[in-house]
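Lab meeting, item 3. Inverse folding demo.
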């Protein structure tokens, strides 16, 4: 019965999306129909309370602020300066400026804690510049889709906090445990970009000749960007500001730097604010629809029933990890990452503990597979963010992100066979 219900809801969602209904409304519509058909709950009250609770979250205020910060950077010389500073250092690396997507997301991931904010902010800076310089659009969008997910893995991460509270493990240890896997995943993305560039040598614009002196001299263009990121990062890690307060600091810092460059005109300020508002409204509608769908799935009991079914199969530890990876990717077709963690941990954790799997290790594993769901249609948030910025078909964007998805599977296998990638730093911390 559960499989039939799941299949019906998937088909219904695909039909709504294919007919051109807005994504957030499609999610909410499927949730409404699911509750009407399969539960006895009051749909109207549940929808109102859930959507209000989701969109009025204080934690969520960091998202529009980080998007606005990216819009400001996009409309000033800061994004151009970042390329001027990075370009000479990347000229000898196959793929050249394609790596700015990955490097930028890796740095910004340590600021936002949000996959959507990381993807949107870095995308606002890199996509126009790479297009202007003649880089292929497919690999540009593919690397950004994958690297944007690092916002969940590199601390601080909201999902890590949710998991730590649910599993009763140290959030500080989870944060430090996410550093090396995050750098590993960024390294895999860069390695793929290098291989792709070697296979397609004619697709990358020719390099500019540069000396070491010129490389060092060009690095002066990075000072404003590095200063801004250091201020935001420093305020978080020093315990001075929360992520939301740091996001506000980032906006103020971006405005100050833009003013110092003479780029802070009324038109730029207005356009950046309107651009951030439009993009956030798109994301907020999706979040609201996903929250209502999460509630309806919880009432029906699908996540719990599927998790109990997996727990009852009696799998070996490796088979259990691979099965859970498939389970979470499928679940990600319906739910956002935090909802997946909240709804399933109560059933999954006892099974994981019986298998002798370290809960710190499992926490990072869960974040990694949730990252995979971020670039999996039809409810991959990073795909939606990129669709809003590029106006491309979601299936086309998903196709470009497929190699990054495969690299995440490789990362799961690497952390399984070499668990010290996750556990070494927390042990040193202890």
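The presenter then showed the designed sequence:
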């Amino acid at each position: 019965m559960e499989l039939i219900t799941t299949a019906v809801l998937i088909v219904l969602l695909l039909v709504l999306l294919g007919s051109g209904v807005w994504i957030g409304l499609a999610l909410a519509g499927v949730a409404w129909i699911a509750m009407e058909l399969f539960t006895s709950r009051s749909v109207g009250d549940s929808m109102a309370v859930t959507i209000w609770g989701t969109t009025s979250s204080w934690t969520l205020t960091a998202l529009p602020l980080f998007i606005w910060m990216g819009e400001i950077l996009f409309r000033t010389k800061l994004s151009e300066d970042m390329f001027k500073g990075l370009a000479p250092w990347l000229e000898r690396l196959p793929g050249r400026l394609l790596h700015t997507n990955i490097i930028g997301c890796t740095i910004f991931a340590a600021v936002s804690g949000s996959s959507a904010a990381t993807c949107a902010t870095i995308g606002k800076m890199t996509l126009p510049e790479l297009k202007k310089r003649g880089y292929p659009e497919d690999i540009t969008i593919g690397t950004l889709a994958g690297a944007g997910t690092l916002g969940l893995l590199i601390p601080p991460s909201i999902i890590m906090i949710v998991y730590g509270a649910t599993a009763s493990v140290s959030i500080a240890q989870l944060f430090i445990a996410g550093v090396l896997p995050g750098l590993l995943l960024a390294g895999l993305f860069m390695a793929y970009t290098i291989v792709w560039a070697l296979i397609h040598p004619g697709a990358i614009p020719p390099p500019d000749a540069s000396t070491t002196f010129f490389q060092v001299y060009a690095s002066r263009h990075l000072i404003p960007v590095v200063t801004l990121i250091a201020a935001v990062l420093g305020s978080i890690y020093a315990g001075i500001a929360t992520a939301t307060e740091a996001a506000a600091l980032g906006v103020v810092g971006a405005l100050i730097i833009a003013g110092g460059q003479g780029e802070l005109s009324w038109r730029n300020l207005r356009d950046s604010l309107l651009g951030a508002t439009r993009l956030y409204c798109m994301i907020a509608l999706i979040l609201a629809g996903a929250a209502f769908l999460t509630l309806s799935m919880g009432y029906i009991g699908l996540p719990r029933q599927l998790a109990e079914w997996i727990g009852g199969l009696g799998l070996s530890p490796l088979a259990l990890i691979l099965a859970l990876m498939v389970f979470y990717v499928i679940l990600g077709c319906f739910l956002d990452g935090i909802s997946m963690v909240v709804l399933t941990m109560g059933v999954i954790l006892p099974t994981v503990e019986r298998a002798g799997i370290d809960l710190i290790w499992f926490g990072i594993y869960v974040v990694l597979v949730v990252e995979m769901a971020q670039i999996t249609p039809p409810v991959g948030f990073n795909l939606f963010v990129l669709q809003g910025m590029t106006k491309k078909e979601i299936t086309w964007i998903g196709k470009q992100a497929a190699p990054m998805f495969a690299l995440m599977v490789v990362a799961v296998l690497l952390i399984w066979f070499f668990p010290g990638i996750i556990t070494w730093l927390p042990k040193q911390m202890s």
